[in-house]
Structure formats: structure tokens, C-alpha cells
Amino acid sequence: MMAFGEIGSRNDMGWGQGIYEAYLHVTETFPEVEATFTDEIPWADFPTWLELQGEKGVQLLYTDSAQTWGEAMDLVLPQFPDMWHATPGSDAGVMALRPENSIGMDYPAEWHGFLVGIAAAMMTETGTVGYISGVDYPEIARLGAGMEWGAKWVNPDIEFLFIWTMDWNDSGKAYESTMSLVDAGADVILGYFDGAGLGVISASEDAGVWRLGWGVDQYAIEPSPQIITSFLTGHWVLAEQAVLEYKNGTISHRAVDIHEVNPKWEPLAPLTNVPADVEAMVAQAVKALRAGLIEVPKMRDGSRLGTLGLAETGIVFTPETLLELDIP
Predict the structure, then answer these.
(1) pTM of the complete model
(2) 20 to 30 A from 149, CA-CA: which of 34, 300, 306, 328?
(3) Contact 299, 117 (CB under 8 A)
(4) Closest of 318, 314, 286 to residue 108, by C-alpha
(5) Run of H or E including 24
(6) pLDDT for 260
(7) How is the chain split among helix, strand and coil, in percent rounded to 5?
(8) What is the span of the domain harbouring residue 39?
């Protein structure tokens, strides 16, 4: 038995919808797996929900990250040692703090951030880009730092703004916070939320600024002339890997990176509404990241966003010199 659970919604056009799509993928790919899905679980109810799954004999869980669910995991999982908990967006540092019957299913958030940062810097007309999310968890900081470095790699004079709303589902707060970024000059904005992300989408559309999507391909769900691209968290790939490891008896307490599972995983959805030079630069950067020619540090401290310097990355290529390389 397997149970999917999340704080967000199955139709939030972001992180939560990605988890729902993972549930659908697992039920189709593994018809022998009895799986359930629950969304919009209140934060305070996490322990109760976990206890219920344990009492039902659920063998494998897939939820939000081990940062969001951390306290509940620490409280409940030791009571059910045969129940494994797979948590996306959770790196080795996060998983070191969690119980032994949990596994992190990570993705390189710093890569995703770097790539959308490149696109943002090439599309902005004001020279200011913005990032808005709920809480400065390590995963969220890694994404933001990558975005700041990617933007400054293209243009060192870029101004990088960010806001934490301290809420994953309040779309009204996210709308107002997005508008404050616009008022401060940001004309390209990346959000990263559950249900609150609908506020970022609405504000970006109302203000007529560029938007970078998150979690799933937002343009494919609802095309818009304001969308540049979306970074993809790959919940369906990660959930499938968790099922395979459980079935094979190889599941263990660690963090698995999506590129260990699928080295050719595409970190971004297809770019839309952009000139050819933006597409070419992002495509070349993807190749460089995979080849190890560019390494983006894992900066897990959100308090440093807005002050990062490109020298910290050690990247030796400029955008111009990188484009000249013939990378397989």
C-alpha cells in the first residue's frame, strides 16, 4: 500500500499538482500498487495523517518535503519502522535530521535556479528580477541562489529581489507580495508555492510582467504570453524511483538525486515567448551543467540572497565563451 499526501492542492498549477500527477503516474505504471491520494492536509494534521497511514498498514509514503513534514516525521515514523517515507526536495543535509525509515528524493534546485536566472536576465528590461516563495528552506534557498547567480552570470549588474510570505497556500498574500516586487521594478518573477502560487500567476498576468513557472509545465496547462518557462521538479520520476526501490528491497535512508535516476532529465519545460538567442543560451547552459563545465554551489542559507557575488561560483566561462564551445 502507498499513500500520497500534501499540504497543497492537486490543481494548484505547481508543486501540489506535480505530486498529484506523480500519484496518477504510479497508479498507471504499477497497477498492483494500491495507492491513495490526499491533498490540502492542514499543517497541524500532519502527525494524525501519518499515524492513520501507519495504522492502515501503508508501506510507502510520498508527501511534500522533509522540511515541511519534518516535525511530524520525527514524531510518528519511529512508531512505524516498516513504513517508509519518501520526501521530494530533500537533500542529504535535510535527511540527516530525519528518521531512518525515510528517503529524500532530491533534484538539483541550484541548476534549475541558474537556468531560469539566465532566461530572466536576458528577458528583463528593467534590470531587476524577483523571486517569491513561502519559507527559506534549504531547497528554496538553493533555487533562489541559483537564480541570482544565473542572472548575474549574464549581467553582473542585475538587481535580485526576494520575498518570503511565510505561507504556502495564501494566494492573497502571494498576490500582494508579487505586486510589491513589481512596484520595486521587477519585470521577471519566479514563484515557488503550493496553492499560494495562484496569486503569483494572477499578479504577474495583471501587471503584465514575465513569469517563470514552477513544478510543472505551466504553459502546457494554461498557455500565456507572459510565461518564459517552468522549472520541473519531476515528482513522477522521483515517486516511481521510490516505488522501485521499495519493491526491490534497495530503499535506504539517504538522498537520491533525480539525475542518478535519469541523467537526461530535462530541468526546464520548453521555453516560450522568447527570442532564439535566449533559447540557445539556456540550451548551452544545460549541456554545460551536465558535462560538469559549470558547477553551481549549493547555497542553503536564504539570508544571503540578494548579496551573492558571481566570484563565489568559480565559473570560468562567460556566456559568450560558453556559446563558442562544442559540447556533446
Answers:
(1) 0.95
(2) 328
(3) no
(4) 286
(5) helix 15-29
(6) 87
(7) 45, 15, 40
(8) 2-107+234-261
